[in-house]
Amino acid sequence: MQRIGVLTSGGDASGMNSCIRAVVRKAIYHGLEVIGIRRGYSGFIDADMGPMNLGSVADIISRGGTILHTARSERFKTKEGRALAMENVERFGIQGLVVIGGDGSFTGASIFSQEHGVPVICVPGTIDNDIAGTDYTIGFDTAVNNVVDAINKIRDTATSHERTFVIEVMGRNSGNIALAAGLAGGAESILIPEIPFNVEDICKKLLNGIKRGKLHSVILVAEGAASGLEIGQQIKALTGFDTKVTILGHLQRGGIPTAFDRILAARLGARAVELLMAGETHKMVGIRAGEIVATDLTEVLGKPSPINKDMYHLARILSI
Ligand code: F6P
């Protein structure tokens, strides 16, 4: 193998730049050339790509987002779109591809590699931490820290005004961000799609809290579980409490990547290059119990990535 391509696809995640840096430098270290593909599969189809060198990835380790830009491509879901991408693989002499993204991006990578025989290694990069075969995805830790930071700030004003706050967080169909940030931030209730909840029970807990002198409450709602606005309205109607709602939105996705995300990104990116050099394909690199492992995409795609129920129960116990 002499030349590989690298792209980021789907929602950006802090740490993607650290991963791009690892892919480029590890490849160059081993004498490979690297083509950076911009705007995910859109740039793959449109030939928006060019050579990268050691300097292309200088000073990016601490930057959130992705220098390669990213996109969600509808055209790559079509045979015609993928055929155009294949033309660019030939034109640019790409012999292997590293795809940094989430489940949707991996589905595209899997189909493309099977359709055209191009070796592909996927690296999980999404704040949602919703991918089977890895304990953590790049960007999750930074997003959780962003949410905890927001909870800390909201707690100050919530205490001052003795208010109840509902905070809606991202995660698509996964409650992982809400759960981790809720435990770290000391939320009174955590609503996640994986566990059924009842707003009346949440209100009873809030009322009990007030009785024992609590000055404020924070309820974390995963976007996949419910609308924060609706939960806020229901709580206000049932308790009469001054209830405010904050939807954190995309601020969760940005910011300086944590050391955890940078280290994870470096290890996963480097292993992806090693796998391509070893002739592997159709795999995702991940971290399990601290070890970097490779899993075939057939065991990743569409497979559930369960939440940690022990953590959920602990969060409940600690917020009585
Ligand atoms: O997958 C990452 C994510 O941030 C989800 O948590 C969220 O549901 C979605 O992307 C938002 O996508 P967009 O940035 O396209 O609105």
From TrEMBL:
Enzyme class: transferase
Cofactor(s) the protein requires to work: Mg(2+)
Family under the similarity heading: Belongs to the phosphofructokinase type A (PFKA) family. ATP-dependent PFK group I subfamily. Prokaryotic clade 'B1' sub-subfamily.
Single Gene Ontology BP annotation: canonical glycolysis
EC numbers: 2.7.1.11
Name used for this protein in its record: ATP-dependent 6-phosphofructokinase
UniProt: ADP binding residues: 21-25, 155, 186-188, 212, 214-216
Subunit-level organization: Homotetramer.
Active site: 128 (proton acceptor)
Activity regulation note: Allosterically activated by ADP and other diphosphonucleosides, and allosterically inhibited by phosphoenolpyruvate.
Binding sites annotated in the UniProt record for ATP: 11, 72-73, 102-105
Entries under Pfam families matching the protein: PFK
Cited InterPro entries: ATP_PFK (IPR022953), ATP_PFK_prok-type (IPR012003), PFKA_ATP_prok (IPR012828), Phosphofructokinase_CS (IPR015912), Phosphofructokinase_dom (IPR000023), PKF_sf (IPR035966)
Pathway(s) annotated for this protein in UniProt: Carbohydrate degradation; glycolysis; D-glyceraldehyde 3-phosphate and glycerone phosphate from D-glucose: step 3/4
GO MF term set: 6-phosphofructokinase activity; AMP binding; ATP binding; fructose-6-phosphate binding; identical protein binding; metal ion binding; monosaccharide binding
Reaction catalysed by this enzyme: beta-D-fructose 6-phosphate + ATP = beta-D-fructose 1,6-bisphosphate + ADP + H(+)
Keywords: Allosteric enzyme, ATP-binding, Cytoplasm, Glycolysis, Kinase, Magnesium, Metal-binding, Nucleotide-binding, Transferase
Positions contributing to substrate binding: 126-128, 163, 170-172, 223, 244, 250-253
Protein function: Catalyzes the phosphorylation of D-fructose 6-phosphate to fructose 1,6-bisphosphate by ATP, the first committing step of glycolysis.
Residues binding Mg(2+): 103
Cellular component GO terms held in the UniProt record: 6-phosphofructokinase complex
Primary localization: cytoplasm
Compartments, as annotated in UniProt: Cytoplasm
Boundaries of every Phosphofructokinase domain copy: 3-276
